[in-house]
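Data deposition worksheet. Section B asks for the primary sequence of the deposited chain exactly as it was used as input, without tags or linkers unless they were present during the calculation. Section C holds the resulting structure in token form. Section D is free text for depositor observations; keep each observation to a single sentence. Incomplete worksheets are returned to the depositor.
Section A, Depositor: J.P.
Section B:
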Amino acid sequence: LGWDFYEKSLDQLMRDSLMMELRSDVPNGVFLSSGLDSGAIAYYASQVSSQKVKTFTVDFRGGSRAEASYSEREGAREIARVCGTEHEEIVLQPKAEELILKTADYFDEPFADTSAIPTFLLCQAAKRKITVALSGEGGDELFGGYPTYLATHWAERYRGIPAFARSLISSAVGALPVSWGRISWDYKLKQFVYGAQFAAPRSHYAWKEIFSEDDKDNLYSADFQNQRKGHDGFESFQHIFNKIGEGAELEKLLFSDQQTYLLDQFLVKSDRMSMAHALEVRVPILDHRIVELASQMPAKHKVCGFETKVALRKLMKGKLPDSIIKGQKKGFSPPIPAWIAGELKNFVLQTLSPERIQKTGYLNSSAVKNLLDEHFARKRDNHRRIWCVLNFVLWHERWG
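Section C:
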């Protein structure tokens, strides 16, 4: 089957899905970022809705260039303009201590996705005007939107380089200055070199993990290490990966992310943060017919060369601005690296004090202090690790 078949099918299914999801006796709208997935939802919603579609986005405004890199404002405005939506921006300021405590409480489990913060505010603001919101969740896991899918392809070639050359590259990449910008090049390169030492699917897992097994050996207390008995977190991921049996590697990775990353992180985040405000969130891209069509598409319509999410980019060409079609995956997180070292520093230091760390019984306070020292000195961007520990401590004190 050629691309024409998939394009016509996907176009019709997107229209059908949006018509169905927009059925409601209460006001509805769309969560809009500067990304392709939510842009596609806004476009098709505006095509099939009899009323002007409401769109909402979160804007992260900070003084530094790194903080400004997290802003979704311009891209979201452009999509809203093209689609003719009634657009609203919610500005997120870094005075977030109370908000962090609230979100940790609502999850009632250790949950360390930083995008929970803007999602909470987005739902809070949207609820004032709508009762049902549409989200673009699922597009990356169905159509290959993460750069890790590209990395899997190029890592195989990288491992073919002589060992001495890889060692030189690794040293050079490790020496790059730390940037706190949004998914900066130094972060991408360092993650790639680290994960590329493994073959897939371990490399795919390594690019997503927050703490490596070596990190955990240092982070965990001696008592917990004994209870852990050498458990490797990769085992759960590999079990799901192996469930498929024979099949294209990309399809197996997509399936694994659908069963883990999407199911256990993104959908949980959307569900908890929306229910905290009695707001219903619907996910049109996860219509079972779209999921089935995506699973039938050849890999070349998902990831090809240096391009991700090929099918959606082709589908939306001419419908959304080229800047959105050609845009890179950004994610939906606030400028946490700068906040941890700035406005939130005292809050982080108080929460992760040696006394509170030791009370958990699971963590090594000196290892946590080292994470903080490295981050504050800008020797390493530890914001994901620090955020993970912070939320674990808050959860343990409230529910543990």
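Section D:
DSSP finds 23 helices and five strands in the chain.
The first strand starts at residue 28 and ends at 31.
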